[in-house]
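We modelled the chain as a single entity of 263 amino acids. Its sequence is:
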Amino acid sequence: MMNWGRPYVPRTDELLPALLDQVEAGGVSESVWRELWTMLCGEGETLVPGSPAALPRLVALARSETQALEMAGAIVRSAMTDDQGELMFVESADAIAELRELVDRRLRTRPADYIWGFRTLLAIEGQFHWSAALGDFSDDFYAVPCPHCSLNVTIAIGGYGTYSARRDWDAGDVDRRDLRPASVAELDGTGRWMYDLAVRDGQDRLAEGIRYLMGRAECPRCASVFGIADEYAAANLPPLSSVRLERSRTARQTAAQATPVRG
């Protein structure tokens, strides 16, 4: 009996090419796709050996197979957890560029799982902290340290309200202060890109939530006002991610500019 919960399948180097051959031939059962998920994506959360090498084939399959598109997206979202992902962004730059186009095309159809594609595009753009944390703002909560007094401030954006608060495990969110959303004119960089994408695709709740996320909050202890996104990113961006991303971008640019040496 297959153990679908195992994190990695022994002899993957032997099994993976055969499985990819099967799905490329078409007409495979759901169990084959489940086996690929288990081998390549660690149940959709962890980059495992074999994932980076399989990405170009999955992207090619993704032109017609939704499962392959979702699997390729999961691999990219997990990519910067180790050096495998860093190399993948360099070595599979063309496949990742095509994946971006495929995901963007799907988002334009306004699918029910829109946030999945939105988060995948964020990962492709190197915004791994937002890719991992962003929800659909139905009931999102973020923990952000106040930069002035270090209180762990709860930020709520969604059906429970839009506020900053001090979380008390008995009384709930206390000392609530209304958030101050960024105006559209104030949005720039990643925040503006996220907002424009959501507006383009008619995702009104997502677009409005992004304005609050990119806005400002008041600390319920010291009453200082700070930028939510800046403090969240500073607290949650892995120490090496920005370095790795910049190194990967530099390597891609160098590779694109290089010309073959002719003998």
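As a brief sanity check on the tokenised model: The CA atoms of residues 167 and 197 lie 32 Å apart. DSSP finds twelve helices and six strands in the chain.
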